[in-house]
Amino acid sequence: MAERDKVCIIAHSHPEFSKGGGELAAHRQFETMRDAGRDVIFVGACEVGTQYAETRQIETVMPFGDREYVFSFAGMAEDKLAWEDAFQRRVLVDFLAGLDCDVYHFHHYWRLGADLIDELMEARPDARFVMTLHEMLAICLHHGQMVKTRARELCRRESPLRCLACFPDQTLERFAYRKATLLSVLSRFDSVIHPSEFIRARYRDWGLTRPRDPVVENYLGDAMLARPRRTADPEVMAHRFGFFGQPTSFKGLDVLLRALPMALRGNPDIVLTIFGAEREDVLRLFPTLEPMVEAAGPSLTFAGRYDPLDAVELMGSVGWVVVPSIWWENSPVVIQEARRAGTPLIVSDIGGMAEKVRPGLDGLHFKRAAPVDLARVMVDAANPALRAACGASLRDVMGRAEFLAALDAAYAPRQGYSPEMRRAAE
Q: Which of 47, 112, 147, 195 is most open to solvent, judged by the fewest CB atoms within 10 Å of its CB?
């Protein structure tokens, strides 16, 4: 039975060193399975050693807690999809194969390597292999964002010619070879898990069709599920907005800050708090926004970085969580955290954001990368009656029992499937 399987979860980072959504999802899965009495091991990449290793010899794999390990990816190629150092790759493959697991569950392929996956499948033909796809790096060379490099236009479908327009220094042959290599490896997985219907559709269009490719939302973890959801007073909270995350160029914080002055003209009681960055961080990335930041005065506050474990509690301090990303997103953890907190959302009308937030029920949509439309929505959202309605109908997140059952289904042996059939999928 699947619940008796020995499982190795392999992630592109350990959240001790990087707190992105994918690595948090992988480690929370490890903690949940471990606490449920499952036989599980966590192995994560880490940047510790990537520079240190240039001058000193270090171990490729290092213990990092009870049934946890980290490995250095210093021997990987620059794009971190393959290994330049075949010896380090072999050491890691031997270590993983020697764990003697029934299931190897990969969260991502970046920093892990398509060649490592291929070699591990050859070393353990009797094991089952599962992949959770957190974004679209295999499809898009532009950080997996599917946003064009010459502007911030969305890209809706890859092709060698389209990709060459974004990366004119590459070749058609390289794009074709890259796709063929990654598609070949991903097609050999027994199950491919997608955290959203949106990303499943994108990978299917790209050519990745598997007999088992379920949509399973990332699990927030037992600790967050144990916290009670707050019931907010809409009269007090409706005009309070919050942004949570890093101020990268794809997260749309500049769109939100451009929208704020217009929203304040519509309702001067609106206040916005930026969680995840200091004022200096934002202006370093978006220096042209300084006049708007100054003009906002006390209506804008920068709360600095926060621990992900505190996210749900912090979201309870605002009336709306704004997710203004200009790229598609897949299954943003900030949306799940807001739903757990009981705080409705305002999100861009594309990708996984539009899928996870039902307009008028879980929150509101605005036109992607459009500050004027975002300002309009913020003014509407500051109405206590609308805040009360969305707060009452906002869905909670997936529970522990449902999550473990979905994993068991993905891990179960496929009837009539053999290692030879995996090899034939190449």
A: 47
CB contact set of 384 (below 8 Å; sequence gap of 6+): 234, 235, 238
Angle, nearest 10°, between helix axes 114-123 and 172-186? 30
pLDDT of residue 15: 86
Q: Which amino acid would we find at residue 158?
A: E
Q: What is the mean pLDDT of residues 266-289?
A: 95
CATH 3.40.50.2000 positions along the chain are 2-219+400-424, 227-393
CATH of span 2-219+400-424: 3.40.50.2000
For residues 30 and 105, the answer to whether their CB atoms sit within 8 Å is no
How much is the average pLDDT of 5-33? 92
- Indicate the pairing of strand 103-107 with strand 39-46: unpaired
CATH architecture of residue range(s) 227-393: 3-Layer(aba) Sandwich (3.40)
**Which residues, other chains included, contact 271 with Cβ-Cβ below 8 Å and sequence gap of 6+?**
239, 240, 241, 298, 299, 300, 301
Record the pTM. 0.91
**Nearest to residue 423, comparing CAs of 184, 106, 242?**
184
In Å, what is the CA distance from 107 to each residue of 25, 193, 282, 367?
Answer: 9, 9, 30, 31
Give the pLDDT score at 323. Answer: 98
CA angle 404, 406, 410 (to 5 degrees): 115
What does the pLDDT average to over 196-210?
Answer: 95
* Residue found under tokens 């948090």: 24
**Strand 61-63, strand 68-72: pairing:** antiparallel
DSSP states along 109-178: STTT-HHHHHHHHHH-TTSEEEEE--S-TTT-TTTT--B-SSSS-B-----HHHHHHH-TTS-HHHHHHH
For residues 169 and 149, the answer to whether their CB atoms sit within 8 Å is no
Overall residue count recorded for the chain in this entry? 426
Q: Provide the mean pLDDT of the chain.
A: 92
- The predicted-structure confidence for 213-263, as pLDDT tens digits, reads as follows 999 999 999 999 988 888 889 999 999 999 999 888 899 999 999 999 999
What does the pLDDT read at residue 393?
A: 96
Query: Rounded mean pLDDT of 328-340?
Result: 94
Rounded-to-integer distance, Cα 347 and Cα 356, Å: 9
* pLDDT at position 422 over 90: no
Q: Following CA atoms 107, 110, 116, 118 in sequence, which dihedral angle do they give, to the nearest 10 degrees?
A: 70
